[in-house]
Amino acid sequence: MEEEKSVSMETMVNVHAVSTSGQSQHSPELRIVLIGGRELHGNPSNKSATGNIILGKTVFDTSRRTAQSVVRQEEVHGRQVTVVDTPGWWWHYPRENTPELDQIEIRNSVHLCPPGPHAFLLVIPVGIVFSRIFKPALKEHLELFNERVFCRTIVLFTTDAPCSNKHLKDEIRMWPELQWLLRQCGNQKHVLDINNKQDSTQVINLFKKIEAMVAENASSHYSIDSARGNVLREKIEAIAEGASRRVAAVQAKRRRLRALIEGGKTPPTHLRIVMVGAQWSAKSSAGNTILRKKAFAVHQGRTTEYCEISHGMVAGRQLTVVDSPGWFYNQTLKDTSGMDKLEIVNSVHLCPPGPHAVLLVVSLTSAFNASYQRAVLEHMSLFSDKVWKHTLVLFTKADWLGVKTVEERIESEEGLQWLVEKCGNMYHVLGHTNHDGEAQVTELLEKIEEMWAGNEDPHYEVDPTRAELIEARKQSGAMLAKKMRQSTQRQANILRELFRGERQQITDFRVVLVGKKESGKSMVGNKILFEELFDTAWMKKEFQDQKINKMCKKHQGNVAGVHISVVEAPGWLTDTVTPDWAKSEVLRSVSMCAPGPHVFLLVIPISKAFTEKDRKALVDLLMPFGERVWRHCMVLFTWKDWLNERSIEEHITQKAMT
């Protein structure tokens, strides 16, 4: 019964007990830094709202993302309280994906409350799915501070309704990584009801916990290095100065190009635009914003599988916009499927005689790191080098900038500086929900016209004969796919007839998963057993190191009355010769499910190309079992969302043709 009391009631009892010992016991000053991840799956981070509740006033802006560390002070319950709000990171992304500008601001937060914070409040919404991928990301982001950060951290669970002790315990019990985090923080935790601003006791009790933690740390605060603080300030100032210089250079170039237009170089009234970029960069949404209509389908998890074309009249100009399939943001060209490559190449041929502008779409939500830069450079090589003269970088997810400018973001990352300079300093920021959207689109079209005016070639030239070859290849692939579907259906019908009425009850089923690294084998195993038992590549920090020998993993479970054993064999890397230990482990996988597996599931990711090296590696691994092994093999394609409305047969046949 005691556990069912709400946390706020527990707070009232504790505060009452403390108050009887005299209010003079509390600290005269408290310095607090708020840290944590971004909103995820509809769960808001509540960092800024937490700061407002602590200070008793709306001093932090909750209407937009916190892109810059902000400090506010108020006198609260007899204490001078300083709170610093910081940018959040994606819970499931490693630190290398967090923009450098955000990392600088997070580091700088402790220098905004000298001589250092008494407490870090790690804000976590109650109900968040705190999966295993959060742990390495959390550790990496907390390394932005020194090693003493954990002993000065309180895990602050936020909720929008009263939360009982039992409910909180159940939440913690559900997630082992959350339990690990609490152990790291000495089990220091607190619950804050965001919607119960009138309950001052929850804030008072939080202060008491901070003061108790400070006492345990020998009445000391988190110490900061003033020299490091000076370096950070100089870096922030240098970024701002570089941004100002870039703005001036861009404005000067635009005036020069606009003068050419006003001097008589009349731009075309019909602009042809092609959108290219990584998956989930909001290409399709950007196309809709430009055309001011829902021309391209957009919804959660959907990817563009074919080039799509749409037309419209915008700001007095006739527009043709082509959307194209994206590549995985850090994926090399050789890993991109042949069908996606074919569609990307085809995009520029869908607006003959060629596009006036290629918009290279880059999302501001992730760092433009070395792997992202390499992916862009390799995929743009599908076109000729001349494409860069007609390319404009289109930044999306503008809300990520907050109070920062896009020029500051560019100056903070060498990769972005390289990219915009590769495009002749032609770039634009587009926000899909901004009330100034119409003005943004008009300005973008003006920049495209200015880029056109500065080019000797009126548009990116395409080879019409190549377009015909691409179309012929696609048509042949579609015919082959149709024949494959018909053949598969006939085979399925025959098997059903042969075994009609002879089906035996299966009580035991044994599966071996085989596939290259990052193919989704672990995910498949978890789905088969309806439980998260196999660690996925997100959690295996060493999965990129081929030298570390992996071992087969086995898990079992009961599903629909059937005892299922799943053995995952270690994967291989595409660029290396299949090592002997991997071959030995595949042999061992069979002995781990004696008397032998019913099926080998050959796991193939649709999102990546299946290369000749992959085929050879697979044959090498299965060769010791003899030719009969193929009778027990089934190909299991993962990353189904990559197909969308495209059939798996089309994917297979187009791969064969490319």
Automatic annotation (TrEMBL):
Tell me one Pfam family matched here. Answer: AIG1
Q: Which Gene3D superfamilies match?
A: P-loop containing nucleotide triphosphate hydrolases
Q: Which residues form the AIG1-type G domain?
A: 32-231, 268-469, 506-658
Q: Which InterPro entries match?
A: G_AIG1, GIMA/IAN/Toc, P-loop_NTPase
For this UniProt record, give its keywords in alphabetical order, as a comma-separated list. Answer: GTP-binding, Nucleotide-binding
Protein's UniProt keywords contain Nucleotide-binding: yes
Molecular function per GO? GTP binding
**Family listed:** Belongs to the TRAFAC class TrmE-Era-EngA-EngB-Septin-like GTPase superfamily. AIG1/Toc34/Toc159-like paraseptin GTPase family. IAN subfamily.
Name this polypeptide is given: GTPase IMAP family member 5
Organism in which the protein naturally occurs = Larimichthys crocea (Large yellow croaker)
Provide the taxonomic classification: Eukaryota, Metazoa, Chordata, Craniata, Vertebrata
